Amino acid sequence: MSSSLSIPIPFPIAMDSASSLTVTQIALFKPLKQKHHFVRGRVSVIRPLHRRLNSVSPPRCSSAGDDAVITLHVGGMMCEGCTNSVKKILESRPQVLSAHVNLTSETATVSLVPEQKTAPDGLKQLGEELAQHLTTCGFTSTLRVTDQEDSS
């Protein structure tokens, strides 16, 4: 009248403690024979952020004056994600051709579409509008007055 209970064990177990420990370890740590699909891609090491940002400089306005450029001081940026957000916010405006944002100098250099090339007063007004828009979006911003504008 004895009833037996059988429990299937997926790995062999020996009777003495030393061999059962060895057999158990081998069974537990042997590699799985399943195929794993891994994403293949290119990995690059990220250099320190301040070196990367200092190595990239925004394009300079040509001396011929055929590019309309506005420089803004932008505060509240903490990371590269913030710089990308500022860039997207500025480039979403219809007057903006492109924007280059520098985290370390806390500046945004904005190139305007050709139709926006106006008198310096018009550029100043547009710069203040862009700065106000950035401030509304959460980044404190002011129009940065350049040396060229100071002399005029």
From TrEMBL:
InterPro entries: Heavy-metal-associated_CS (IPR017969), HMA_dom (IPR006121), HMA_dom_sf (IPR036163). Residues 68-135 form the HMA domain. The keyword Metal-binding applies. GO terms for molecular function: metal ion binding. Keywords: Metal-binding. Coiled coil: none annotated. The keyword Lipoprotein does not apply. This is HMA domain-containing protein. The gene is LOC100527143.
